[in-house]
Design brief:
single chain, 4-stranded antiparallel beta sheet, 12 strands, globular, binds N-carbamoyl-L-aspartate, binds zinc ion, DHOase_cat, Dihydroorotase_CS, pyrimidine biosynthesis
Length: 403
């Protein structure tokens, strides 16, 4: 552990090292009606996020060196000057893994490789339908173990999801949580960890949403302490539950789904006890028209502009959800003297993602946050192209200072 101060504070101003969102979908190329690199990196800037790792489920997907080079060129041309972008490679076929191996091992690509933060695998379909077969999954863990590439896994198990979906026909957004149950994520997490242990793969579990997933991380760390196993939680799983379908419907439909309050409690406990390494937003803009469709709306929601203010509000001792009670995990931790602190924000949004994804961001304070800024979230005033938010009307305390 480094003893260096992680942030500076004078009065109500906090100065933080570059905050990193290790899970975003900026939608370019191909899905620019939802968002693009310029709009979403601007939202990041106003949210106080200085670097973001973009996922490969674009159109075309980032599954070749050429597709990666195209994204890097687009980011160089249009990203907000104060938001650095990194890109995950994707793979649904063996030829994509060959491209990744070429990127990693051929010195010709050394510059491009600097912009690639790892491989993203979808173990079940999500937006973009990039589910990886068992054969490709096993080869991906082997390759990433051999070359020590960080493998980020979207863990849900398709057999369990398919069976649950057959049992619970789609019947509005709330049915989504029944159709993609907690056991599905838990089973997939176990499978991913088993592959990682076999191939010594650096494994990062994306958007974990269940108590069982965090228990699996704890157990594996005890059983196999040298395995580089890390995990992230999203703001929506920290601040929203199945109770929020009643107010927000399709806007809170996401993969993995929002969960029952017991999982929400476990995520807060895991954030405070250090089991959770990163908060990644899974910033996934869709248009309101898409969300309001009469059929099944797409999964995902935006968050990059509000994640830091949400956490700063908790650091300030307030619980921002307008109707749900403060999680018992937070109340009980506070009784033991453990509250969410500024150091936790730096840990989950700077130190850990910077280390896990080898981003080389400087650790000196860089961005200022006004901790006394009280504001109300209004979707149309945010900068994501989609112009809506699941946190509409929430009152937050703390905001990045922008110029
Ligand atoms: C993401 C998207 O829309 O790209 N959707 C989601 O529900 N989380 C894809 C993903 O992260 O699985
Ligand atoms: Zn995902
Ligand atoms: Zn995602």
């Amino acid at each position: 552990m480094s003893a260096a101060p992680s942030y500076a504070q004078d009065g109500t101003m906090a100065h933080l090292p570059p905050l990193i969102d290790c899970h975003v979908h900026f939608r370019e190329p191909g899905l620019e009606h939802k968002g693009d690199i310029a709009s979403e990196s601007t939202a990041a800037y106003y949210g106080g996020i200085s670097a973001a790792c973009d996922m490969p489920n674009t159109a075309p997907p980032t599954q070749s060196i050429a597709a990666l080079a195209d994204k890097v060129a687009r980011a160089t041309a249009t990203a907000h000057a104060d938001c650095r972008l990194f890109f995950f490679f994707g793979a649904t076929a063996e030829e994509h893994l060959k491209e990744l191996e070429e990127l990693w091992t051929n010195p010709t690509h050394a510059d491009l490789k600097q912009h690639c933060c790892g491989l993203k695998l979808y173990l079940d379909n999500s937006t973009g339908n990039m589910k990886s077969s068992v054969a490709v999954t096993e080869k991906a863990f082997e390759l990433c173990g051999r070359l020590q590439i960080v493998l980020v896994a979207h863990c849900e198990q398709s057999q369990i999801n398919d069976a649950a979906a057959a049992q619970h026909p789609y019947d509005g957004p709330a049915s989504h949580s029944l159709r993609r149950p907690a056991e599905s994520e838990a089973a997939s997490v176990q499978e991913a960890i088993a592959f990682a242990r076999q191939h010594r793969t650096p494994l990062h579990l994306a958007h974990v949403s269940t108590a069982q997933s965090l228990d699996a991380v704890r157990e594996t760390r005890l059983a196999d302490p040298t395995l580089p196993l890390t995990c992230e939680v999203t703001p929506h799983h920290l601040f929203l539950t199945t109770e929020d379908y009643s107010c927000c419907g399709a806007r809170v439909k996401v993969n993995p789904p929002v969960r029952l309050p017991q999982h929400h409690e476990a995520l807060w406990a895991g954030l405070l006890d250090g089991t959770v390494d990163c908060v990644g937003t899974d910033h996934a803009p869709h248009t309101l028209d898409e969300k309001n469709t009469a059929g099944q709306p797409p999964s995902g929601m935006p968050a990059i502009e509000v994640v830091v203010p949400l956490l700063l509000t908790v650091v300030a001792g307030r619980w921002p959800h307008p109707t749900a009670p403060r999680p018992t995990a937070l109340v009980e931790a506070a009784q033991r003297g453990r509250t969410l602190r500024m150091e936790d924000i730096v840990r989950v949004l700077h130190t850990n993602p910077n280390r896990i994804f080898h981003l080389g961001e400087p650790s000196a304070p860089h961005r200022s946050f006004d901790l006394s800024c009280a504001w109300t979230v209004v979707g149309t005033e945010l900068h994501s192209k989609c112009r809506w938010t699941p946190y509409e009307g929430w009152q937050l305390l703390g905001r990045a200072v922008s110029h």
